[in-house]
């Protein structure tokens, strides 16, 4: 800790991180041991976090992350979308296809930013808020591929055809190295296949988005 930081705030944030990393919650004693502080301090931290709905305690006294965290989380998508838009615009204009940023939302892939090219006669309509299973479509498959060890991943990008829309092909690459973000950048176009050069361009866009979010 430095003179410019708050020890109490630091401890409260550490409590939230500890609770977020467990599915079963933690007791006051467990939190006390993990934080290295006495139980009285933990009680005060939990009481404050409960007032803001960031923590809840069940009947057994175990603390868990509260629903207030979800309300904060809803504000993340607009910030991520804003950071990703320049790279998506450049991608869409260069390849003449609809570009998108997709993030994990539970067990689904959720499109949080979409940019359509301005100069093409036609392109695939793809809307923000579109959801699909993670194991279907280039965007979801790229996210799953990003979870694999480096030596087991696809060579940079994933290509699919007709999995989400008949006649449409997609290319996507995972967004890697951004703490708290699991997603992919991709394009979708009306074609039988996606040229390999576009796959490599999608990888570059994914890296640009990752740099913007770090």
UniProtKB/TrEMBL annotation:
Signal peptide segment: none
Keyword annotations from UniProtKB, A to Z: DNA-binding, Transcription, Transcription regulation
Residue intervals passing through the bilayer: none
Highest taxon of source: Bacteria
Domain IclR-ED: 68-214
Keyword Disulfide bond: no
Protein name: Helix-turn-helix domain-containing protein
Lineage, broadest ranks: Bacteria, Bacillati, Actinomycetota, Actinomycetes, Kitasatosporales
